[in-house]
């Protein structure tokens, strides 16, 4: 059995999407495969491969009266202990939700990434969605039981183009979006040379005063709708800059442009957790040389990144 899910980019409503703001989300062309083969080992053999087909993690899990455990001493207490524990958490929740005993016979599970793990395009969310496809369970529930978050990344994993996403108390609203800017050849994505911890970013957001949270949600949702409808690069840049200033004030952190690229002439917007992963850049000319001179080698045009 073979399953596939797309990666993700959160274009608007970072942090605010957690509280119900409408977000513009873009699935990426690259994602992750999951290959599942039944065997008779009574265990689950887990192999994770990177974009070059190289194994970056592997383990074997067994289940006894104490629950699911790793059979690898290195993964129990070594550098991969956190990854191993996360796999156990996912398998435990997947069994609970599916009502299946995955260890009655056993499986070999192999994941295949198409993008670099450190890029933050959804190594975890694509895995959750693939596991959910395999076992026919609700990916949003599995996400809540494991990594947590707003769920926009799960919506992207299943999407075949741009979407708007909104989380309510009762459900998730994911709709196809008409976002298809004529100026997309002036949009680029630049990797900031470090992966940002989304859970830490969310914790920082939650620690801020929320006296104006409802106003934030309304403003961000309005910007999302305006961005979807805008017809010119100038209007897009204005909306991006307004959004960036709004979130910067909310989370009390400096804008990435002011921090790293103050002399850049186009707009620069953080995506997802601030401080790492990718930023979205607008430029009338190819900005690759500018960013490479500053030590940022990975500059990807919109057409190569977005599904």
UniProtKB/TrEMBL annotation:
Q: Check the record and name the SUPFAM superfamilies matching this protein.
A: Ribosomal protein S5 domain 2-like
| Keywords tagged on the record | Kinase, Transferase
Does the record bear Transferase in its keywords?
Answer: yes
In its UniProt record, a GO molecular function of this protein is: kinase activity
Spell out the Gene3D superfamilies in the cross-references: 3.30.230.10
Kindly indicate whether the keyword Transmembrane belongs to this entry: no
Q: What protein does this entry describe? A: Mevalonate kinase
Organism the protein comes from: Zunongwangia mangrovi
Q: What is the lineage of its organism?
A: Bacteria, Pseudomonadati, Bacteroidota, Flavobacteriia, Flavobacteriales
């Amino acid at each position: 059995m073979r399953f596939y899910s797309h990666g993700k980019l959160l274009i608007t409503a970072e942090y605010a999407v957690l509280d119900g703001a409408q977000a513009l989300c873009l699935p990426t062309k690259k994602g992750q495969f999951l290959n599942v083969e039944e065997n008779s080992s009574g265990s689950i053999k887990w192999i994770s491969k990177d974009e070059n087909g190289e194994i970056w993690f592997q383990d074997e899990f067994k289940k006894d009266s104490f629950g699911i455990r790793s059979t690898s001493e290195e993964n129990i207490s070594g550098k991969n202990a956190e990854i191993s524990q996360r796999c156990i958490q996912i398998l435990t929740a997947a069994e609970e939700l599916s009502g299946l005993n995955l260890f009655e016979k056993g499986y070999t599970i192999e994941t295949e990434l198409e993008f670099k793990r450190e890029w933050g395009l959804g190594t975890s969310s694509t895995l959750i969605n693939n596991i959910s496809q395999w076992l026919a369970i609700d990916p949003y529930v599995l996400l809540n039981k494991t990594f947590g978050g707003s769920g926009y990344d799960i919506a992207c994993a299943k999407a075949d183009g741009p979407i708007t996403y909104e989380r309510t108390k009762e459900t998730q609203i994911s709709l196809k979006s008409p976002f298809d800017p004529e100026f997309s050849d002036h949009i680029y994505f630049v990797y900031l040379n470090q992966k940002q911890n989304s859970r830490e970013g969310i914790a920082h957001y939650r620690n801020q005063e929320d006296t104006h949270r409802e106003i934030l949600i309304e403003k961000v949702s309005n910007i999302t709708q305006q961005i979807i409808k805008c017809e010119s690069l100038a209007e897009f840049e204005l909306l991006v800059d307004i959004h960036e200033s709004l979130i910067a004030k909310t989370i009390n952190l400096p804008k990435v442009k002011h921090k790293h690229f103050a002399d850049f002439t186009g707009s620069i917007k953080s995506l997802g957790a601030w401080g790492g992963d990718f930023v979205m850049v607008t430029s009338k000319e190819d900005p690759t040389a500018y960013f490479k001179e500053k030590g940022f080698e990975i500059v990807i045009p919109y057409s190569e990144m977005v599904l």
